[in-house]
Design goal:
Helix content: 40-55%
Number of helices: 17
Number of strands: 17
Largest sheet: 5 strands, antiparallel
Structural class: alpha+beta
Strand order of the largest sheet: 2-1-5-4-3
Radius of gyration: 40 Å
Length: 523
């Protein structure tokens, strides 16, 4: 942008360049702000697009401007959205219309608010004048009325003082923390109950920011409740952690209410009522943990059930093999006894159905059933999973390196099933590195967004990895590279990821770079 164009854009009002026919050649950002049109929408169009009537701009530019310094007019205009306004228009000749493309500069000063105020004042003046004329004859009769108004005002002031007294009594005796907070989050008033619930006296909190005492993981949603919800100004409820004076964090439930100015609708202050719900939140978390542990317990019993299930499945499979081989021998002998063959095959079908029932019972026991999806952050799930397997990591002296992308979007997933996937992958990595030197045992977990719709989680370790020959077999049930493996872990992991709409991939060990990656859709 050259120097002239910079000056043109710097004009504080709407500025429009016209040619000698009154067509728009250029306009600045303030013109877009005033009229609602982008520059692309108006270039080459008549300036009368903006006005409520047609002005003879070709004549103004050709005949009037050369003889005058400016053309001034008070004009009504329409914005792109249809709303109407008033502006003070001033046109100035900047070149000879017969010699240059650019002929005039047209500047608009928005006086819509001024005209509206002027109109309101005129209406008000007429009303006041009429009221004055009507009241002049009865001036003496108004004296008792003034006395009565004074009495009413005094009564209102007494009621207000009593209301403030009742509020103070309520706040001083409430078990919840009653607070008044400024629009920027500074405490203006805090009830004495803060000493019991937070350990601070009201004097220690007044003048301090309310955000200073919240947990860093809850700070963003606390600020969102205070600032981003102001457009609708609806009351809201928030559960977050606040720090006590001795450093302990406890869960609080806070009711937030915005107090607005009746005329400007600007927020004057924010009133909050906070109660300690730490025991309730922890009890809920304990209940969820019990459900998770119950599911893990069900998984742990799989090893005890393995031999019994294998025996139960092997019987119908052996019977199917015997029946099938008998049919083959019968057919090879050249004897075709159709009724006998039908009977034998029916017995084989019966045994196959029996084996299917056994497998279905195994599946029903192993799976949780319907997915329970909730919005969650994958980085948090991974950190929690690592803490669950931390004893095994410490016992085997295995290091875990994390390379997490910050501020990953939320995903919608069954948190427990994703933890089960990561537990399986981490346990596999630990087992694969048992024969290595302790200093060389490392696991790296990486998270990143592949695109706007997908989050990827990559796990690799310093173990031998999967060969190209094995990588196509690992998803088959009961296939395992470990001496005592069940051969079900990776197959179940892939099923869980695919049930979430993701993809489970294993990269074979080529050039010492073997890894496992699964993707999940962003919420």
């Amino acid at each position: 942008m050259d120097y002239t164009q910079s000056l043109f854009e710097a004009i504080p009002d709407s500025a429009i360049m016209l040619d000698k026919a009154g067509r728009i050649l250029d306009w600045n950002q303030n013109a877009s702000a005033l009229f609602g049109y982008s520059k692309r929408e108006v270039l080459g169009r008549s300036i009368n697009l903006l006005y409520d009537r047609n002005y003879p701009f070709p004549k103004i530019i050709k005949e009037i401007l050369p003889t005058q310094k400016k053309w001034l007019a008070e004009t009504a205009f329409f914005r792109k959205n249809g709303s109407k306004g008033t502006c003070r228009s001033a046109a100035t000749l900047i070149s000879n219309p017969t010699q240059s493309k650019v002929a005039a500069l047209l500047v608009h000063q928005n006086i819509s608010a001024y005209k509206a105020t002027e109109h309101d004042l005129n209406v008000k003046l007429e009303q006041v004048t009429a009221q004055y004329r009507q009241s002049a004859a009865g001036l003496l009769a108004l004296y008792p009325l003034n006395l009565r108004n004074s009495s009413v005002r005094e009564q209102l002031e007494r009621d207000l003082r009593e209301s403030e007294l009742r509020f103070c009594l309520l706040a001083e005796n409430a078990t919840d923390i009653i607070a008044r907070v400024s629009a920027d989050g500074t405490y203006l008033y805090v009830s004495p109950s803060c000493k019991t619930l937070l350990g601070y006296t009201p004097e220690e909190l007044i003048g301090k920011s309310a955000f200073k005492y919240s947990h860093r993981d809850d700070l963003s949603k606390l600020k969102k409740a205070f600032f981003k919800n102001r457009e609708n100004k609806n009351n809201s409820t928030l559960i977050y952690r606040a720090r006590r004076k001795e450093g302990e964090y406890r869960w609080f439930e806070t009711q937030i209410r915005f107090i607005c100015d009746e005329e400007t609708q600007q927020i004057r202050e924010i009133q909050t009522a906070s109660r300690d719900v730490n025991d309730h939140v922890l009890a809920k978390k304990v209940g969820m943990r019990k459900q998770q542990l119950a599911h893990v317990f069900r998984l742990s019993t799989m090893e005890e059930m393995a031999s019994g299930m294998a025996h139960e499945i092997s019987q119908p499979l052996a019977a199917i093999i015997n029946y099938t081989r008998g049919c083959v021998r019968h057919l090879q002998s050249g004897q075709h006894d159709a009724p006998l063959l039908t009977e034998v095959m029916e017995k084989a079908v019966t045994q196959a159905e029996r084996a299917g029932e056994v497998i279905q019972r195994l599946k029903n026991f192993f799976c949780k059933g319907q997915l329970v999806k909730t919005p969650c952050k994958i980085n948090s799930i991974l950190r929690e999973t690592i803490s669950l397997i931390r004893p095994d990591l410490n016992a085997t002296k295995t290091k875990v390196d994390l390379d997490f992308e910050k501020d990953l979007p939320f995903i919608t997933a069954d948190r427990i099933q994703l933890q089960q996937v990561m537990l399986n992958l981490l346990q596999n990595a630990i087992d694969a590195m048992r024969d290595m030197n302790t200093g060389a045992r490392r696991i790296k977990i990486e998270t990143n967004t592949l695109n706007k719709d997908t989050v990827a989680i990559t796990v690799n370790d310093s173990g031998p990895g999967f060969s190209k020959e094995v990588v196509h077999k690992v998803f088959k049930p009961f296939f395992s590279t470990k001496a005592h493996g069940r051969g079900m872990g990776l197959a179940i992991c892939r099923s869980i990821i695919e049930a979430h709409g993701g993809v489970f991939t294993i990269n074979p060990n080529t050039s010492n770079n073997s890894w496992i990656r699964f993707t999940l859709p962003i919420e």
